Amino acid sequence: MEKLQITLNINGKDQALLVQPNDTLLEVLRDELDLTGSKESCSEGICGSCTIQMDGKPVRSCLTLAMEAQGTKIKTVEGLANGDELSNLQQSFIDHGAVQCGICTPGMLMSADALLSETLNPDDTTIRQALSGNICRCTGYSKIVEAVAHAGKPEKSCPDCQTKE
Predict the structure, then answer these.
(1) Which tens digits make up the pLDDT trace of 120-137?
(2) Domain 4-79, what fold?
(3) Section 72-88 average pLDDT
């Protein structure tokens, strides 16, 4: 099969690539660009560990062809941090113990980031709905919901947090 030239905008930077027509976005991110934060777990779009954002919306990168992503703005978990400085959401996951084995974490972060970019101070029901397509095999949902809620309310104190606000 002949490779085709595409350009993807990933984390604010254009990337020119040669891809097979059937290459998934997840394969290109991980294998061609060494952006390994998004995880391949089920390869069927069920678990959510491969979730990235396209134009601000959570998308399963294992089901999305790389060619379909041309002309969109792609954000991966690597795009959340500002250099070495973690985003408020990433820090909240750490502070609340919302990271266990780590397989679901990138997808959870990307779904939560999309939610928080549209909804300030989401309630637990809204958070759980936004994360409903992401499976945590360690069953750490309560801590994940707490972390997202806290990140959505950074002005409030957090007695359980390790960092000072």
Answers:
(1) 899 999 999 999 999 999
(2) Ubiquitin-like (UB roll) (3.10.20)
(3) 96
